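hey m, so remember when u said the tokens were messed up on ur end? i reran from scratch. heres the input so u can diff it against urs
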Amino acid sequence: MLKSLITSVVFLAISTGVTRGADKKMILPKGAPPNAAWSYGILADGTLYVSGMGGEDAAGKIPASFEDEVRQSFDNIGAVLKEAGVSSSDVVSVQVYLTDGALFNRMNTVYKAYYFKDPKPARTTVVVAKLVGEGHVEITVTAKK
């Protein structure tokens, strides 16, 4: 009886996805240095979770213009999407973190021109006191294949 109950519980767990932790895949864009503390992206069951990407280029430099910083942030996100085999049209959610609310319209101009097509992803924009480093923007996305 106990063996039958355990077998039923294991079957139920497998069939409902409780044991899907093994389906996670770390995404490391080409040329990006590995990081011991976090992943650039995690692909799990067809959903890509992209870590917050600032506007630093490959050398760790932040562009002088805020608009270029936002573009670089999207370029960094694009590298993760590409490595995962996902496109910008698969993005379903975007979170934008700004250090100054006065930057919203400038960020939004770049955002609208960048690469999201209809239907546009859901978006949240938050103003924070400070980001790690010297950047003014950090953006994260979630995409579903």
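this time it looks ok to me. Residues 1-19 have pLDDT under 50 and may be disordered. if urs says something different then somethings off w ur setup not the seq
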